[in-house]
From TrEMBL:
Keywords: Isomerase, Rotamase. It catalyses: [protein]-peptidylproline (omega=180) = [protein]-peptidylproline (omega=0). This is peptidylprolyl isomerase. The keyword Isomerase applies. GO terms for molecular function: peptidyl-prolyl cis-trans isomerase activity. It comes from the Eukaryota. Its EC number is 5.2.1.8. Residues 148-240 form the PPIase FKBP-type domain.
Amino acid sequence: MTSNITTFNLGYDMPTMAASLSSLLLPLGSTCKSLSCNPQGIAADRLRCLVLQYRRSVVKAKASYTTECAAMVNTNSRRDFLGLALGISSLFVGSLEAKGAGLPPEDKPKLCDEACEKELENVPMVTTESGLQYKDIKVGQGPSPPVGFQVAANYVAMVPSGQVFDSSLEKGQIYIFRVGSGQVIKGLDEGLLSMKVGGKRRLYIPGPLAFPKGLTSAPGRPRVAPNSPVIFDVSLEYIPGLEVDEE
């Protein structure tokens, strides 16, 4: 006797076969037990077992893929964050280093521009007994300040290379102090006492008349070594309380 056994080509795409035979699918919690003696039942039970195994493998594969992807995304996110943080920090440090070097000086406000610098090359240098040297950028027409009087002045202080380490122009405020009273460095005191209101002067201050202890560097400010020479461009704006009414 020949049995009519239904056969299936197992080379078919399993998802397509599973979708078309949804009535044969077993619940995910079911297991394959003893097969029926009916030949057709045997084939059906085998198919159910194969479909169940396929579904389980797909679920496991998806779970594994999701876990791996999450781990990969998490790792990549951490790497990207660390890379971004390092990049920003390097840019920030690089910016501070550039500012700490006092660069670029041409971006800072000045009392003597490029045209002034060229004219200053032809101005004779004056040297005093103390070793102070200066060049008059502009000779003022007002009075000279008496010792102990307050003066209002603008200044731009530089190291010999031209890098600015202090400036009243950057602060946006005229500097007022008592001239000749030791409130500022010796070279600035001496240089201002012989100026006239309205005048501008470049002071070449030697180390002994500058900063005995030096100045530390700061963002946008170069270091000034102890007893090192400095340069001051200074303008004498007015002398508070000393007004000249004569024509």
